[in-house]
Amino acid sequence: MSRRIAAFPPGYRVGHATDRSSRTGCTVILPPAGTIAAAEVRGGAPGTRETGVFTPGNLFSEIHALVFAGGSAFGLAAADGVASWLRGQGVGFPVGAERVPIVAAAVLFDLGVGKPRHPNAAMGREACRAAREGIVETGTVGAGTGATVGKLLGVGRAARGGLGAAAVRLPDGGIVAAIVAANPFGDVVDPESGRVLAGPTGGRSRRFRTAQALLEKELEDSPLAGAATTLVCVATTVPFEPGSLKRVAIEAHDGIARAVRPAHTVVDGDTLFALAPSGPAPPVLLRLRVGAAAAEAVARAIVDAVRRRGAAARHRR
């Protein structure tokens, strides 16, 4: 099976903290200085931190770190560790004698998959210390450690999710890349053929049962059916200003809809962050190219997350 190489933009460092006994973890993305962010939440059950900061017209648009974590709402504590680590590095907005890092975060639900422990501040700091440029480790690692796909029939019949990455190179050499933690309610499908790649299985046969087919039947409510989300970071080398970057975040959500069916449900926490160097808005044609490439990178990254679910893999620039 061919593998696409993920070329994450230069200057970005990505690190993980993984607790394999509890099947949970967190992933931190440390962008280069001067990076701004936009956020778009399309799921009905999100768990987030600092998404409102990046609304165009607000005081701040720069981001110092992005954290994805398991543990549901408890996992947001990992961002506290990231913020304290950055403060110790002298990173953050100066407020008097203090430095206040802007650390955004989003979480997925992996409770009930492993032991009852969740990411905390110590794991956030661990992920920061492990962060490296040029290599993105994917699979059942970091925030993707306990991710599953299709819990409608219970965890025991769900497929493994995970962390995925992909990138698209623009005609002028620019990069649009995506990192995804895939833990959706819906099935993960091949965007080109529609073939189901991950979803609930039908017992002994282990054949996938599509979420759509199951929803059309009478089912008992599963306590974990709503424990789902897809978390996405899109990063580009093309400079943007906050308003035009917000449109990239909106357009990139199309990639979730291509690779997850159904997507953006009331029980998903689908959240996407778009990151770029600060600058003037690009020409319209370049904006169109970046938006289209972002959606493509997101769809590929979701597929990558489940195809690499058996073991961690490495992407190199």
Main pleated sheet: 6 strands, mixed
Number of helices: 5
Principal-axis shape equals globular
Query: Structural class, from secondary structure content?
Result: alpha+beta
Estimated radius of gyration: 18 Å
Number of strands: 20
Q: How much of the sequence is in beta strands?
A: 25-35%
Head-to-tail CA distance between termini = 20 Å
- Name the average pLDDT: 89
Helix proportion: 10-25%
Order of helices and strands: EEEEEHEEEHEEEEEEEEHEHEEHE
Low-confidence parts? 1-5, 309-317
Sheet with most strands: strand arrangement: 4-8-5-2-1-9
Question: Notable features of this structure?
Answer:
disordered C terminus, 5-stranded mixed sheet, alpha+beta, 6-stranded mixed sheet, 20 strands, single chain, 317 residues, globular
Question: Helices, strands, pairings?
Answer:
Elements: E1 13-19, E2 24-30, E3 35-41, E4 48-49, E5 65-69, H1 77-88, E6 93-95, E7 98-100, E8 103-107, H2 121-130, E9 132-133, E10 135-138, E11 148-149, E12 159-160, E13 162-169, E14 175-183, E15 187-189, E16 196-198, H3 211-215, E17 229-236, H4 242-259, E18 260-261, E19 271-277, H5 284-307, E20 313-316
Parallel strand pairs: 5-8, 17-19
Antiparallel strand pairs: 1-2, 1-9, 2-5, 3-19, 4-8, 6-7, 10-20, 11-12, 13-14, 14-17, 15-16, 15-18
